[in-house]
Design goal:
- The complex is a heterodimer of chains A (177) and B (314).
- Chain A is α/β, with parallel strands linked by helices.
- Chain A has a domain at 11-70 and 93-152: Rossmann fold (3-Layer(aba) Sandwich).
- Helices cover 26% and strands 28% of the residues of chain A.
- In chain A, the strands form two sheets. Chain A has a five-stranded parallel beta sheet. In chain A, strands 1-8-7 form a three-stranded antiparallel beta sheet.
- In chain A, helix 1 (10-27) crosses helix 2 (42-58).
- The longest helix of chain A has 18 residues, at 10-27.
- The radius of gyration of chain A is 16 Å and the shape is globular.
- The model of chain A has no long low-confidence stretch (mean pLDDT 96).
- Chain B folds into two domains: 16-135 and 289-303, Aspartate/ornithine carbamoyltransferase (Rossmann fold), CATH 3.40.50.1370; 137-284, Rossmann fold (3-Layer(aba) Sandwich).
- Chain B has helices at residues 16-33, 58-69, 90-99, 114-121, 137-151, 169-180, 209-214, 226-229, 237-244, 248-252, 274-277, 284-303, and strands at 47-52, 73-78, 104-109, 125-131, 158-162, 184-188, 204-206, 218-221, 259-261.
- In chain B, the strands form two sheets. Chain B has a five-stranded parallel beta sheet with strand order 7-6-5-8-9. Chain B has a four-stranded parallel beta sheet with strand order 2-1-3-4, sandwiched between helices.
- In chain B, helix 4 (114-121) links the parallel strand 3 (104-109) and strand 4.
- In chain B, helix 1 packs across helix 5, helix 2 (58-69) packs across helix 12 and helix 5 (137-151) crosses helix 6.
- The longest helix of chain B has 20 residues, at 284-303.
- Chain B is globular and about 55 Å long.
- The chains are: A alpha/beta (177), B alpha/beta (314).
- Chain A binds chain B through residues 42, 68, 70-72, 75-87, 102-107, 109-110, 116-117, 120-121, 135, 158-159, and chain B through 1, 3-4, 21, 24-25, 28-29, 31-32, 35-37, 39-42, 46, 300-314.
Chain lengths: 177, 314
């Protein structure tokens, strides 16, 4: 039986995202240059919510896109082919400050793939990374700029993020197998 | 969503779920083709041999471009320029290609079952690009993709395949794919080219072209392969055109939303009227565009290894 305990509840997630939004504004003084891109699947709903919070604070619409990194992964022949989800970036990223958004930062390989994938869409002025949970165990020199919660974990544990599902409360769980 | 196959040999052995997995994946690759940079690194470092023992232009070009857009390295091998002409067996040719550490072999061969044979004797991924009159799986997948994109759902549609069914691997693969996905398939053409035995595949067979077209959502035309028939199967091309060619009068009696498909190359003025081939309800060029996306999807899926598709790997 998998034993799990809650790291964040819905209110905790909302507080984390609000704090991240303020940190993004603090770091980037020109909101007009700011765009968010959520990484499929876990980052897209979070990017949407973060975009709403940022738009509320800055009083201007912050563009939000989605990026699927499946075609840029480095483990494609080591696993069954992944399901590919839509990439929708209906704006030009060249010259912008792009904040990549994902739910969990673990090995860092997804973020490396995302940086590669984004490269095909243009040349952002700068790229930053926001994650809801940083669970450690990096395999690449990658670091998040904005973190909701730093959570040391064991390698065989799982961090489960439930967010934006219509029939479920938002929460983050740590599962021990 | 499920795909655990190492080869694409035919449609007959695929499940509806596997076919839909290819179509869903192809949608993502079609979007890649619409970007400024149309290339992704999914097959970087992989070597693909295109072994076209039977001549082909459009399928080979489509596969080649698909491989280039996936960043694979490509070797093209045609029968005319190969040792097959010097008497080497297919197995030896393929074993030599495998010895060069090829990861994929895409094969077109006049003998039905040639891809299946290679998949048994080689350790590479094998993709059937047409084997005799047996199957042409990527053509059926791109046709299904095109129908689904234009009509939403394939289940419940009436699809009429008109022309030379007997000699057509495109027809066989399409019949398998469309019936698995729940379409009602009607076959029509000269009785010599459309034997009733096809009813065993779950199709309706009719020799009344008006009846075949009346309810069709999709009119799928096949090329009259005059190089294969040598006038033994029907009296003349002119008679075929008169009796079975899709002309404006016949098309006017079809449903107003019926769409025309053809795997190419088309014989203008034979199986299809010149103007109809270019009309707004002809999907012939969309099929070509979609073929590229579908072939990228097939190679991407086959490249996958064992194990679960969804792994926690942030």
């Amino acid at each position: 039986m998998a034993e799990s305990h809650q790291l964040l509840n819905a209110a905790g997630i909302q507080r984390s995202l609000t704090r991240i939004a303020h940190e993004i504004i603090e770091r980037n003084e020109t909101p007009a240059d700011l765009v968010l891109i959520g990484i499929q699947r876990g980052g897209t709903a979070l990017a949407g919510r973060l975009g709403e919070i940022l738009s509320g604070i800055t009083k201007q619409a912050i563009p939000v896109g989605t990026l699927d990194v499946s075609m840029h992964r480095d483990d494609l022949d080591r696993r069954a082919a992944p399901r590919i989800h839509p990439t929708q970036i209906p704006f030009d990223v060249t010259g912008k400050t792009v904040v990549l958004v994902d739910d969990v930062l673990f090995s860092g390989r997804t973020i490396r793939a995302a940086m590669d994938a984004l490269n095909d869409f243009g040349r952002p002025q700068r790229l930053q990374l926001a994650v809801l949970v940083d669970r450690g165990h990096r395999e690449l020199p990658i670091k998040a700029d904005f973190v909701g919660k730093n959570q040391p974990t064991a390698r065989d544990e799982k961090v489960l993020v439930r967010f934006g599902a219509p029939d479920q409360a938002d929460e983050v769980l740590l599962q021990r197998s | 969503m499920s795909w655990h196959r190492q080869h694409l040999l035919d449609i007959e052995s695929l499940t509806a779920d596997e076919i839909l997995t290819v179509l869903d994946t192809a949608r993502a690759f079609k979007a890649v083709g619409e970007r400024a940079i149309k290339k992704v690194p999914a097959l970087r470092g992989k070597t693909v041999v295109n072994l076209f023992v039977e001549p082909s232009t459009r399928t080979r070009i489509s596969f080649e471009l698909a491989q280039q857009r996936l960043s694979a390295d490509i070797v093209n091998f045609t029968a005319e320029a190969s040792s097959l002409k010097k008497g080497e067996t297919l197995k030896d040719t393929a074993k030599n290609l495998e010895a060069l550490n090829a990861d994929f072999i895409v094969i077109r061969h006049r003998a039905a079952g040639a891809p299946h044979f290679l998949s048994r004797v080689l350790n590479t991924h094998v993709i059937n690009a047409g084997d005799g009159a047996h199957e042409h799986p990527t053509q059926a997948l791109l046709d299904a993709f095109t129908i689904r994109e234009r009509k939403g759902e394939i289940a419940g549609l009436n699809v009429t395949i008109l022309g030379d069914i007997l000699f057509s691997r495109v027809a066989r693969s399409n019949i398998w794919a469309l019936t698995k996905l729940g379409a009602k398939v009607t076959l029509c053409g000269p009785a010599t080219l459309v034997p009733r035995t096809f009813e065993a595949m779950g199709c309706r067979v009719t020799y009344d072209v008006e009846a075949a077209l009346r309810e069709a959502d999709i009119i799928h035309l096949l090329r009259i392969q005059h190089e294969r028939q040598r006038k033994t199967m029907f009296p003349s091309i002119g008679e075929y055109t008169t009796l079975f060619g899709l002309n404006r009068a016949r098309f006017a009696r079809a449903r107003p939303d019926a769409l025309i498909m053809h795997p190419g190359p088309i014989n203008r003025g034979v199986e299809i009227d010149n103007e109809l081939a270019d009309c707004g309800r002809s999907l012939i060029l969309e099929q070509v565009t979609n073929g590229l996306a579908v072939r990228m999807a097939v190679m991407f899926l086959i490249n996958g290894g064992k194990g679960p598709a969804e792994v926690e790997s942030h």
